[in-house]
Structures are given as C-alpha cells and as structure tokens.
From TrEMBL, chains A, B:
The lineage of its organism: Eukaryota, Viridiplantae, Streptophyta, Embryophyta, Tracheophyta. This is Auxin response factor. Residues 1-21 are annotated as: Disordered. Belongs to the ARF family. Signal peptide: none annotated. It comes from Abeliophyllum distichum. It is found in: Nucleus. Residues 1-13 have a biased composition (Polar residues). Homodimers and heterodimers. Residues 133-235 form the TF-B3 domain. It comes from the Eukaryota. Auxin response factors (ARFs) are transcriptional factors that bind specifically to the DNA sequence 5'-TGTCTC-3' found in the auxin-responsive promoter elements (AuxREs).
Amino acid sequence: MRLSSSSTSSAGFNPQPEEGEKKCLNSELWHACAGPLVSLPQFGSRVVYFPQGHSEQVTASTNKEVDATIPNYPGLSPQLICQLHNVTMHADVETDEVYAQMTLQPLSPEEQKDICLLPAELGTPSKQPTNYFCKTLTASDTSTHGGFSVPRRAAEKVFPPLDYSQTPPCQELIAKDLHGNEWKFRHIFRGQPKRHLLTTGWSVFVSAKRLVAGDSVIFIWNENNQLLLGIRRANRPQAVMPSSVLSSDSMQIGLLAAAAHAAATNSRFTIFYNPRASPSEFVIPLAKYAKAVYHTRVSVGMRFRMLFETEESSVRRYMGTITGIGDLDPVRWPNSHWRSVKVGWDESTAGERQPRVSLWEIEPLTTFPMYPSPFSLRLKRPWPSGLPSFPGLKDSGDMNL
Amino acid sequence: MRLSSSSTSSAGFNPQPEEGEKKCLNSELWHACAGPLVSLPQFGSRVVYFPQGHSEQVTASTNKEVDATIPNYPGLSPQLICQLHNVTMHADVETDEVYAQMTLQPLSPEEQKDICLLPAELGTPSKQPTNYFCKTLTASDTSTHGGFSVPRRAAEKVFPPLDYSQTPPCQELIAKDLHGNEWKFRHIFRGQPKRHLLTTGWSVFVSAKRLVAGDSVIFIWNENNQLLLGIRRANRPQAVMPSSVLSSDSMQIGLLAAAAHAAATNSRFTIFYNPRASPSEFVIPLAKYAKAVYHTRVSVGMRFRMLFETEESSVRRYMGTITGIGDLDPVRWPNSHWRSVKVGWDESTAGERQPRVSLWEIEPLTTFPMYPSPFSLRLKRPWPSGLPSFPGLKDSGDMNL
DNA sequence: GTGTCGGCCGTCTGCCGACAA
DNA sequence: TTGTCGGCAGACGGCCGACAC
C-alpha cells in the first residue's frame, strides 16, 4: 500500500516548486535520485511514446513475463507522437522510489502533418546539482553500533562549514527528503585521525527508511542553502509484487488498450515512468527520436558508444558493435524502432547490458557530422515507405522539424 | 514491492494442502483472515463474473475514481458466465493481506445453451474453523513495554493445556503464519489475578508484522494439532498506492479489456479477488446468481435482511427496505444486476453501509418459500426479454439447473 | 477478566578513540 | 582516508505483580 507525494513542475527545472496545495517535491533531488542519465521531456513538448517500452517497465515491475494471449491492437502504432501535457515528479511514500507521471495526448493526423520543433524540444539534459555527494552505505553505516562516516571531501563540499576552533567542531544539520520531511543529524568532526561523522539522528533515519548496507544516500546543498537528502536502494535481485490488485496480464493489456484508445480518439492518457525500474526510457523527445532515426546512418558492423550509469552514480561509456538491425517482435510489433539494433559489447562483463538497443540510445562512431544544428534539421520522407504509421501520415510528404 | 506466497488448492477446503513446490498456504487460516462471510467458488464450477464489481475493487485499491474516458466495450456483458479453472489462495508477503487468484473462462454460446448445475455449484459456505479466536490488539499488546494478554476463554479453547501444577504454568507455543513461517512464543499463566500471557517472542512478531493497536490477530488450533497464526489489519482510512507502476485509469481499462477479449475469444483470463479490499464479491457461483435473479421476487418497499461482519469477526444481520430497483450505471452498464437494488437501512449508523446492493446479497422477507431444493430449480426464460445477454442465449429457451 | 502502570533488571543502542587496511 | 572494533554509559526492552475498571 503506497501513497505518493507529488508536486507539479512544468519542465523539471524548478529549483523550489512551491505549488501550495501539495508538498514540494524537489526537482534537483528527484533527478539526483533518478540518476545522471535520466532526463524528463519538457512540459508542452512533443514526444514519442513506445508501448513496447512501457510494457517492459510493467514486466520489470511485476516480474512476470506476458503469457496470456494479448489481444491485438492493430490500430496501435509501435510509436505514438504525443503532446506532453503534464509531467509531475513523485516519490513512493513507502520506498522513496522516484517516478514521474506524464499525461500524453496522441497528435491528430492534421497535427502531425506539419510539425515544427522548437529548439527547446531537443530535450535539455537533466541538470545535475553541483554540490552533492552519493555514498553507498557500509555495514558500519547501517549498524546500530555507530553513526554514519562522511567522506571528507563530501563533507567539505556539501555540508555547511564547521567552526574548527571548537573542540570538537560540531553542528546540527537539517535535511529534507523527497517528501519534504525534515531529518536532523548531529554532524561532528572528531576521532584520531579526525573524520566527519553523523551521529545523533542517523539511526532513526536508517530504520525509518529501512536502509541496509549497499543502499546509497545522496546529500545535496542547493542554491537556497537547503540541505536535501535522498536515497537510492541497491538493485536487490528480488521479485516484486504481482500487486494483488490486478493481474500482470491485465496490466499489460490495460497499458496497450489505454494507449490504443487514446490514439484512436486523440484523447489524453496517463503513464508512470519509473527511471530505476524501467530498462529504458520509453517517452523520448520527438527531436531526439527524429535525429536518431532519420539523421543517423547505421549499419551492421558499425562501432558505437553508449552511456551507462556506474554504481557510484556517475557515467561511463561502453563500446560495442552493431550486429544486426531488425524488429524485436516482428509479429506483434512489426516495423518498430524500439530496440531495433542488435549489438555486441566489447567487455566480457557485458552480460548485464541489453543485447538490443534503440537508435537514440547509442552514439555511432562515424566520420560524418553526427549532430547538425537542430535549427537546420529537416526531414525528408519521415517514415520509410511501407512502414505503418499514423492515419493521415502514411506516405505523406515532408515533415518540418 | 511485494511477493506472494501461494498454494494451489482445488476448492478451498484442503486442510493441509502440501503441494510440494510452493510453501503451503493454509486454507483454514486464509478463510479466517478473509472473514466469516467470504467464500470462494468451487474449482471447476460455473460462476458469474461482474466487471463492475472488479472495477470497484480496483477503485478501492488505488483509491482513485475513474476519471478518464474509458473506452466502451460494447461486446462486454455486465455479467459473464464463466468456467472457473483455478482458484488459488495467496497472501501478500509484505502485509499478509489475503487474496485469491482465479482463472476464468467465459462460456461459449453453445456451452451456455444447456447449463446443468451440479449441487456442489451452489457454493458451500466457507468452513470456519472451530477452535480459533480473534483478538483486536490493545495499546498494551503492541507496546514494547509488555507482552500479549490472551483472553482466558481463548487460551483455554485454542492453546494446548498447561500443567497448572507448576508455578507458574508455562509452555512454548509454535505457530505458523500464512507463509508457513514459524513463530515461537512463551505462553505463561501468572499475575494476580491470574491471566494468560504471551511474553518472549511476542514483540518480535509485532515488529516484524508491523502491527499496531487496532489490528487483530487470529489463532487457530486445527485438527492436525497445528497452531496457526494470522493477522487482520484495521481498516486504516488511508489512501493506498497509485502503484507507481500503472495509472489507475490504465488498470481500469485493462480489467475491462482483458475480460472483453476473453469473452470474445472464449479464452481464459486471470483476476485477483481481495476480500478485505473489495466492497463486494464479484465472482458469484452461477447457482447462487440464478436463484437470486430468477427465483426471488423483489419489489420496492419490500423488507430484507443482509449479513455483515462485525468488528469482532463475527456476523450480524442488518435490516432494511428496498427503495428502488434499477441500473447503477444506465449508460455504461445498462441492464446489469450489479447493485441493482437501492436500499435504505434501518439503523441510523447506516452511513457505512452501501446504498445499493445486489440481489444475491440480500434475503428478502417474504411469505414464499425462499430456497426450494436446488435439485428442483428450473429456470424459465432466464433473461428478461430485451436484456442484452450472451450471444446465442438471447431469448433462448430453458436453462436447466 | 483484562488493560495499564510502576518497579526493576538486563540487553542493546549509540558515542568515543584505537587501530589497521 | 575510512571501515570496523572494544570500551563504556545510558536508554529502552521486557518480565513481574499491583491496581482499577
């Protein structure tokens, strides 16, 4: 049983969205918890929604493969161009898990005929806060025997400065979590050798959030001199709920039926995006999609790079080679760009990485200029002939970007 | 995030279903936790499934009214006659909340033409265990300051007898919860005046299950000399999860789409029934439905009785008067028997009780014989003419019961 | 008959520097 | 630089009968 605290935020960049009615959910903190690679599309922009990706998220969350005979939704394209009417950031009250709620409206055929992208619709990378640190908790950090050992650089960078003339130097820290709840900690600099510690208040936080060794905490010191505090749980290889509310089969069907109905009637529908549960983002800025699909030449054998998040919440590149291009599910989702690229990874520890990726996730290594200025982007024949598309767009003419 | 421990059980009456592969979920305990009024339909029997009722359960679970424009499923009848292929009892690993999973298959038009009910399909009332007790926890019971005070009659009825010659008499009790986990308690008879107490082991149970004052515990002493232990949480008036997996709108659509697809293709679909979250049962034995709908005369002004569960897990009757008969939702669900009876309740505290009930929930007070022998039941013109029904059944002839 | 409390003892929480990796 | 430990003091857990409703 879960609640969610939420706050509406237009584009995901409100430093302190004080909306009044609801408790403020800090955007910086949300993004810090979501990870460096996660960016939410801009409010008001056009996006491409992938039912397959959404389905993957539900599969991952319910930990159950689809086994029922899912009805066909012949009218449902594998990629829907949508107007993004609302993006709100949320956090599960029980687990502090971050997720976003988006309201999408599939574009009508007329609206799709003349799409002019705004520069903003390219999608700004999520602004990672500058003064923050993320530490994976040790056994000592989570034990009842002691407090939290703060890495020295982290303490000096994100905590308010201590008065080192006192012995020992100490202060009270107040940090706000994703729900706006405040947590008080005694910050002290002591021991031999000297180190920064959080003592009083730490253990109640650990037990309240049910943190265990391996989970991570994030401290942020923002421009408004607020201390923010988020958590990121370790990827426990546990099975998750069959929900006891609705069968996973019905959830899979519901996701497709909701999208199909919205597409058929050009009405709005609502989805949840859980960045840490979902294998891949499935709501992509239209410009990013168009660039990748129509302005990038890929072929079997081509080398590419792709960004991944490390365990320390930073980013690193992995290299790979394209080994094939084709439909992930030729029967149910023919001509889909979702995970249409089969890849091999350079490193032997590549078992964890997907064997299939989508075009917009990778950066092919070519000699051609990869990213021309977005203002000069112009699409000729957006959909390859023969590809199923939206009504009114099949074999249509130009699409202005 | 939740797991579920489960056990397959043919009809819900296996005293100890040792299925091997999965942990045994005790049927008696499941029914004790579900409540005295809950009975599961028999495996293999025919049932009537009500999408409206299922929808109400999802609404109650997600605590969110339907606000999206739900697509119409014109082919979906408000009541589907189904073969019940599977009933399994489950318990949420996080909360111990009981629920049932059922696999339903809508009958084909041919199968519906000649329905012969077996006597067993009348639905046996759930066998409540004899030696059990249910106590609502007090502040003292859940406080860390002490143990659990066992009501004297309860202890004498369901706990193994103590050797009263010892001073003080005490023993170790081992009780199995819904997941098969064992809990050990020190049972002692001491104090002035003497009373039964559970001391050592009680507090770990309380904290592990996160019990608070107002929740209830159930102890059962079954025929196999096993002590079983279940919990029933108080109806916290809390909002529950919007699930962060799928929007409640999509869940509502998914439930309908899954049922509509199954009905159209006569294929199986799976539902979860949560007896404590759902306002009413929405999978009803066919015989019970038929009796109520075709063999009961009700009219406005008629008096009736209806059973409710008390806070002490027993049963009491409430009296009321029928104030109207008609569709709950004439637009989306015309000619549905779901909550077709508008009622007024005699007692002023009736605010908690539904203003609308279904025919099979009530017991009208008439001078006619209410329940003829099931073997002599015979249906003439099962569906009132003009009522939409299943293909092939409209205005069809007799239906043998 | 049973809910709550004061009293009392024992365990565990939680703060400290030592020490080593 | 920081993870873990032994030492220690105080808080809280938890078992008891008293007492009242």
